[in-house]
Amino acid sequence: MTTPSHTARPRPGSSPALQAWVDEIAERARSRLGTGRVADYIPALADQDPERFGLALCTNDGNLYTAGDAGMPFSIQSLSKVLLLSLALRTHGDVLWRRVGLNPSGMPFNSLMQLETEGGKPRNPFINAGAIVVADHLVSAFATPSKHLQDIARTLSGNPRVLIDHEVLGSEWRHRARNAAAAYLMKAFGNLDNEVDEVLETYFACCALRMSCRDLAVALNYLAADGRALTTGERFVPPAMAQRINALMFTSGMYDAAGDFAYRVGLPAKSGVGGGIVAIVPGQMSICAWSPALDASGNSVAAQYALERVAEGLGRWSPGATRFSSPPAP
Ligand SMILES: NC(=O)CC[C@H](N)C(=O)O
């Protein structure tokens, strides 16, 4: 991306009705704190405070509505898979799909079973194996791919303090057995061009980026805005590409619970084991909810709850609305 022109810098939201709604949802989501478990298979994530909750909603005209711990950076983990995919599609285009599939896996994000039976081609770019193949493309294209992704995350979020957390990176590296198994299996099938260690390091570094709900809602707003980045005003990806990334998020962004989430929320979304979930309302807004405690599929309990409440209220939203609220909880 080139010099930012800052056409629509995010600013505190101008609609009191929308801010009140975001506050109300955050308040209600706190009732879900205490359910679920913080991810501990990556030891550096185990000491996250399960009582944290943040919510940020960024409208396409650059109004930002936040509540709770929306400004607190957390480990973005699998949310990075959206940025990795966007970047790989920019550099490689549709040839990427020769080596990664487009269908939901119906399996946990770190499962190895289908990889063996399906010739080392991962089902989609949002499970670990798929993102490792995407990372392989970036290792081929850039001298320092994770630094490049960090720079892009900084530009898209407008926050120069976004960085890779080396403690998390080291922790993922030390506990890499399952991801390494997937990578070696794909290497054996001829589906990795570069050395396994180099690809894994890139993949882990991207997972270890630290960003806040605010950063993520702003950075991923391009998916709600036909590919146009909010902070620069430039097209980050073409409109058709944004549409396809949203489609993949809808079908595969929530791991093996993608169908449940689509049924309950009905928005393209991507989650990470750091407890963040980003959801997109195409043409309108991007939303990030975060709370570290996860359900059995690896999706944040309170963040899912908040996004359900957001989805319920969306039909009532219009830019000029003066009153706005979600229906009472079932
Ligand atoms: N679902 C996730 O967020 C998983 C990402 C994590 N870094 C892993 O490789 O397992």
TrEMBL record:
The gene is glsA. NCBIfam families: Gln_ase, PRK00971.1-1, PRK00971.1-2. It is an enzyme of class 3 (hydrolase). Substrate binds at residues 78, 128, 172, 179, 203, 255, 273. It comes from Halomonas nitroreducens. This is Glutaminase. Coiled coil: none annotated. GO terms for biological process: glutamate biosynthetic process; L-glutamine catabolic process. The keyword Hydrolase applies.
